[in-house]
Amino acid sequence: MTAMRAQDFDVYPAIDVLGGVCVRLREGDYAEATTYSADPQEVAHRFIEAGARWIHIVDLDGARDGVSVNRAAIAAVIEAVNAAGAKVQVGGGIRTQAAIETWLAAGAARCILGTVITDDELMQEAVRAFGGDRLVAGLDGRDGKLAVRGWLEQTELELVEVARRLADIGVRTAIVTDVRRDGTLTGANVGWAHDIMNATGIGCIASGGVRDLRDITAAKAAGLTGVIAGKALYDGRLDLAEALVEAVADAGEEANSC
Asked: Can you list the domains of the chain with their CATH numbers?
């Protein structure tokens, strides 16, 4: 019998920036954007005050167009979050090594890569340059198949096969998003993320459809590394402070495995 420490688990409150303001989309549809705040930095402050250790922030304009137009707003959030002792993972339109380097230099702890994760050469170079711990694969999909370019382009690539290649390259963390559930409050697709994790060994964060503490509990029980929560927080269905307490409950206990 070998003693093994329970895997770290966290809740990542999400800030999606479109045209400089904080919004949520439904199933990735830009035409169905609900604005929640004109000040993403103020939203980040509220999440930090609730105890967040990470902020998940995405440039939706960048995800769609491949060029970040919200850099100033997101850089301000990164600066404020770092000053509070928390960390930021940033995504949206990060498709070159130069873009990764820019965000890491701005203080982001991790960069989320989506559209470029099928480019093995670029991913290998990025892992060599920045390390597998500083890159997160955005495994966003519908019916198990990868969606790219802000989820506007649907491919026929199986997410699990993409994840296998990325794990071999050295990427250690992935965000698994069921696009059909995103913004719907119908519950996270924990089983999907769990299956990808088991098949590839890559640490998975569940995203899309998170509604309440049931999703936090289920994701933690499944051995995932975290959950991203968005609409449920903004609509008051999920209390971030309570979710964070659930995330660390029993974290100090050890799990035994043979």
From this structure: 9-249 (3.20.20.70)
